Amino acid sequence: MGSANLAAIVFALSSLPAFAIARMLRRSPPRRDAALDAHGAGKARLDRRLAGLMEAVGVIGLAAAAGLWWAGDDRGRATLVVVAMVVLVNAMIVAVLLSIFAARRKARSRP
Q1: pLDDT tens-digit profile of 15-24?
Q2: Is 15:65 a contact under the CB 8 Å cutoff?
Q3: 7: pLDDT strictly greater than 80
Q4: 15: phi > 0 → left, psi -120 to 50 → alpha, else beta; which?
Q5: CA–CA gap between residue 25 and residue 29 (Å, rounded)
Q6: Using CA atoms in the order 91, 92, 95, 97, what is the torsion angle rounded to 10 degrees?
Q7: Burial 24-41 (b: 16+ CB within 10 A, else e)
């Protein structure tokens, strides 16, 4: 097994936690009383948004694994794949942070 195949396997395995986190976020929360419904609805909406973003991170990891497998021992291709993955994962981190900050702003503005 070449080093490129090993790197592809590592990238594929490292994407699994993102899918696990997305699954945990998608679980339906327990029923709340009527006074907390607004808060519960906002949290559920944020959880769904974050779950979608975490699934996107997992897909990026799998795409990076496929890209590294495709690149093989070609350093130029491998560098291109890794740079693309880093840019995309960082974009997902920014999207997660913006989602959290927006949810906090909405929560503060509620009475």
Answers
A1: 999 999 999 9
A2: yes
A3: yes
A4: alpha
A5: 9
A6: -110
A7: ebeeeeeeeeeeeeeebe
